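Fold this complex.
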Amino acid sequence: MIEKMKNPKVFVPLGLLLLLGLAPFIIPDSEYEQTVLIACMLLAIMASGWNLISGLAGYVSLGHSVYLGIGMYTGAILGQAWGIAPMYLMPVGGLVAAIVAALLGAIVLRARSHSFVIISIAALWTIQLLAQIAKPITGGADGLVIRPPSWAKEFGPTPYFYIFFGILCLTILLARFVMNSRLGAGLVAIRNDEGKAAAIGINTTLYKITAYSLSAIPFGVAGAVYGQYLSFVNPLGAFGILASVTLVLAALSGGRGTLWGPVIGGFIIALANEFATVTSSGASARVFILGIILILVVMFLPAGLLPTVSEKWAKHRNRNVAVKFIDQTSIASSTSRVDTAAIQSRAVIEQIEGKNLLEVHDIRKSFGGIKAVDGVSLGIKRGSITGLIGPNGSGKTTLFNCMTGVYTPDSGSVLLGGEDITGHKVWTRAHGGLGRTFQITRLFRSMTVLDNLVAPLERTSPREMAAGRYSGEEVSRAREVLAFMGLQEFEKQKGSDLSFGQQKLVELAQVLMLRPSIVLLDEPASGINPTLIGKLSDVIRSLNDQGTTFLIVEHNIPLVLSLCTEVHVLSGGRVLTSGTPEEIRNDPQVIEAYLGPDANLEVPVD
Ligand code: ADP
Ligand code: MG
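Structure:
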């Protein structure tokens, strides 16, 4: 925080905001200017709110102005019923919008991003229709008229100007709070890779609904006063698609996912809108100008204005700074001195008794006609390093996916520490101590290595979600884990800047943040530099010494045979055989089905 304040860049938007607040005093006879600025602020408020679900989590809502309409109607209807001016109902407008969003979110957020876009528009039309039908409450298609307050003539738009200014400031604070919280980190993780986010313990459903509900609040608050400002509310005005599209354009052109981008975009698009209205008479001119802006943004500023400009600026400033090259050997040779508490497995902490830590019973999973897993039963002994080998397509990854909850098996059960977890969600299993990495790396590429490590959650309570991203012991533990892996120098690098092997190590570090009792590794050594393979086996052995159990899928047979105490061989979705590395090495069945007669199975001398 203090570090940030030293950064002169923060003062630019704050200065502009202050200037905006003084506008009614600076500009003489500013009634017209104030109404234009009110339109700008309203669009900035909506774009910032939208940004919470669509910018951070990547779920693009094309019907989000529905919550402005809900705020407008809440203010108008309750204001009339209670005999007060709608603007006093701003908090109620926000609350109603948040509740409707939470309920709607619970339904629509089941859809993945693409269907979500369509459903979000459908929700807007549906609620518009409801407003037309429920005539006794909403006044039907004619809508409701709101009497202007007595001070309206005397002060002009200035009171409204400051109300919208206040809402804008609060919305920016809300956005800032969310972005700096663990919730915000989780949302960005979801945007990067939802399945992976779940695998590291993020309750994606809860996160998305929370973000969706929060994103509706600024709309609802602004809506309550906006209806009064317009002095009427009707279904077409309150639930129009154009407002939704305009606010999306504002957020996209300013820079979605950033704090100030949607605000800047709101001003740019609202001003362009006003320009189109002033210079021509038809709505077609407006659509034309907004369309041109949309094309320009998509072609030249896909990330939005703010991210593009700040990247250019950063490049300009860093042009004389040599890029620091960190080679692989520095990771491999780095000392693994570390506070063992940081990497300690929960199996040791909890001291659960029992023989098998993870068991699967008669697991079957088919895709169409393909029996990917065809009745597999296995037990993974607590404290072991167990190998799972077999030819490509033999069902290893599918079995992992059934164990971790990515797939629900067609039949069979999964037991973790004796507890049946077959129906549990992916993140519940992660919280229960089941960690996994993926065959193809799935690091959150837009996030730094440190952010990748603080994103996993051991618990998902509201307090935990609201806590600062870098708060508590998470950061120090993340640094301990990175040090243990020899990755401390990469802390500030983006996931996308790392080599494949480095990404794989960071993914393992990510999993360790959950203090897993068992880690499933899917081809950890494939595609990575031999120096890093040595490092990887050191890491696995050392974690195993501290109590972590491993199940490893790997084609590097010498590595498997040297690491593992027990090996299972899959073939065609079934267990071909199980045994010690010695037995597997000499099993004629395995040699025929998988290894081949000329396989070099010598364990490399290290
Ligand atoms: P392995 O990891 O051992 O190489 P997989 O578990 O990835 O094997 O695949 C086992 C079989 O299931 C393969 O024939 C593969 O084509 C098929 N399969 C895996 N996942 C899917 C899926 N999502 N949809 C359809 N077929 C799949
Ligand atoms: Mg696989």
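The chain has two domains: 27-238, 355-595.
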